[in-house]
Amino acid sequence: MTTTPLTVAVLGPGGVGGLIGGLLARDGHRVVCLAGEATAAAIARDGLRVRSAEFGEFTARVEAATELREPVDAVFVTVKETALAAALDRLPAEVLGTGIVVPLLNGLDHMAVLRERYPAARVVAGTIRVEAARTAPGLIEHTSPFAAIELGANAEPDSPVAEFAEQLRHTGLDVALREDETAMLWSKLSFLAPFALLTTRHASGIGTVRTEHRAELLAVLDEITAVTRAVGAPADAQTLLASFDRIPGTMRSSMQRDVEAGRPTELDAIGGAVLRAADAHAVAVPTIARLVHDLTESANR
């Protein structure tokens, strides 16, 4: 894998998938974007156009289709959780075969769904930390000074996932391997849940949250730390707080952007996942429960 160009499918070439697909194509790999007819047609015609302070501004020529029609080396699943069930029809298990499947979705529940649907494939847990958005079909705006991927796999250099990770690093992405899948997924969720819930609830960037609503932020961090430890993953509230204090104050969550655009949100995949884990382990999370309740009520108005 480290010397031969790969064929990689991207299911859902939005902000995250479009950025990864564009970087892979620019680095010489064959990329097939799987999307609806209009989006697929636009990408086939115009390519993936990326605007990034980190990676520059470029257009990458890729293929596009509404459904996978041949086996690939790997596929990134980068749709929103709310669109996952319908999107998987574009990725037939019998066509995919034994390729590597890397979901970069928020939450936890998608892992069981994918492993049941693609038993022959290597479904590798993944997370990404990035702020990127699709502003038009095939047009990707990457606004964070980072794009960091973690993959749940051992670091043996001759393993397929380790080789795949090396290919991804060559594109410029920051890629790390984590042997403890549970710790990796909860490390992401323990940051994402407070970030998404609070920026969406207060309709503001994280800078406003950490100054004007700091007491609430501290309460949420204490609660998410307790849940994370209860499921068997390491967590520290002060380390989380340092992360929140370090990121650019203008950063907003994708959940917040979805609310502003009137789109379905990943509230259940993010906040709901925390509440279900808290209930299963008898951990009290009153602040998180209130935020989820308030956001649910707001969405139903």
Task: Give a brief outline of the structure.
By secondary structure, this protein is α/β, with parallel strands linked by helices. It contains 13 helices and 13 strands. Helix 7 (181-202) crosses helix 12 (267-280), helix 9 crosses helix 10 (237-246) and helix 12 (267-280) packs antiparallel against helix 13.
Overall mean confidence score, pLDDT: 95
What kind of sheet is the major sheet? 6 strands, parallel
Q: What is the assigned CATH homologous superfamily of the largest domain?
A: NAD(P)-binding Rossmann-like Domain
CATH class (first level) name of the largest domain = Alpha Beta
CATH architecture of the largest domain: 3-Layer(aba) Sandwich
Order of helices and strands: EHEHEEEEHHEHEEEEEHEHHHHHHH
**How far do the termini sit from each other?**
51 Å
Estimated structural class: alpha/beta
Overall spatial form = globular
List keywords for this structure.
N-(1-d-carboxylethyl)-l-norvaline Dehydrogenase, domain 2; NADP; single chain; 13 helices; EC 1.1.1.169; alpha/beta; 4-stranded mixed sheet; globular; oxidoreductase
Structural notes for this entry:
Its EC number is 1.1.1.169. One of its GO terms (biological process) is pantothenate biosynthetic process. With 301 residues, the chain is α/β, with parallel strands linked by helices. It folds into 2 domains: 7-179, Rossmann fold (3-Layer(aba) Sandwich); 183-300, N-(1-d-carboxylethyl)-l-norvaline Dehydrogenase, domain 2, CATH 1.10.1040. The protein is 47% helix and 19% strand. The chain has 13 helices and 13 strands. The strands form 3 sheets. A 6-stranded parallel sheet has the order 5-2-1-6-7-8. It has a 4-stranded mixed sheet with strand order 4-3-11-10, with helices on one face. Strands 9-12-13 form a 3-stranded mixed sheet, with helices on both faces. The longest helix has 22 residues, at 181-202. The protein is globular and about 50 Å long. It starts with 6 loop residues before the first strand and ends with a helix.
